[in-house]
Amino acid sequence: MPVIDVSKLRKSYGERRVLEEVTFSVEPGEIFGIVGPNGAGKTTTVESIAGIRFPDDGTIRVLGLDPRRDRAALRLRLGVQLQSGELPDRMRVGEALSLYASFYPDPADPEQLLAEFGLDGHRRTFFGKLSGGLKQRVSIALALIGNPEVAILDELTTGLDPHARRETWRMVERIRDRGVTVLLVTHYMDEAERLCDRIAVINDGRVAALDTPAGIRARGGPDASLEDAYVTLTTNGSL
Ligand SMILES: Nc1ncnc2c1ncn2[C@@H]1O[C@H](COP(=O)(O)OP(=O)(O)OP(=O)(O)O)[C@@H](O)[C@H]1O
């Protein structure tokens, strides 16, 4: 059974239809990427999966639960990475992990997460004083504090330098190694290629392609990079 099952999702904001018909499913243990141009509806899709936004039509099941109806039950099994602006600048890293751990019945050990994410030297540092890369590590650690079965990571390497990006990728691989299914929104094709088992390309409110990174790349032609294939796909609508 898929861990995430999204069928015929539709969503408009006022007159503007953002999601026309989005359908895909994510299998257990996958890192599943969602890519697409700015404004394509990626965040709308993943926030609907997290039960934070509500689609106009279509069905979503996560671990067999309906994010709208079963929001409380799902919250305990789903980890959502916070955008960095969502944590108070004057909260210390250790305090944030302990506070978030207190929201869950069976949380991960904050000390263990601090060690695993190389944050033990920053336990008493204010969140606002951390570098971008360290902030992202904290937000990933927080997404894992409830021992989730599924994690949603939305544009987690945007604005990071190349070292911090690679470090963050290793963190994501570690999440997968724990058996957590990951839904990853990204604009970076190198990131999608390195991390994702499969990718859905969302364009014009629909899934324009759904395949492995190699499968999508191959559709672009013999020497095409994933980015070449992606650009063609989101310009012409199909390959
Ligand atoms: N609450 C809202 N009210 C009105 N319009 C919205 C709202 N949220 C998103 N939109 C619009 O819907 C479209 C899709 O937004 P969404 O954030 O889902 O796209 P995205 O693919 O994640 O974009 P990006 O890559 O730029 O982050 C955008 O044009 C956005 O301006």
TrEMBL record:
GO biological process: response to antibiotic
Membrane topology of this protein: Peripheral membrane protein
Gene Ontology terms, MF aspect: ATP binding; ATP hydrolysis activity
Segments forming domain ABC transporter: 1-229
CDD domains: ABC_DR_subfamily_A
Compartments, record wording: Cell membrane
Entry's Gene Ontology cellular component terms: plasma membrane
InterPro entries: AAA+_ATPase, ABC_transporter-like_ATP-bd, ABC_transporter_ATP-binding, P-loop_NTPase
Protein name per its UniProtKB record: ABC transporter ATP-binding protein
Biological source species: Virgisporangium ochraceum
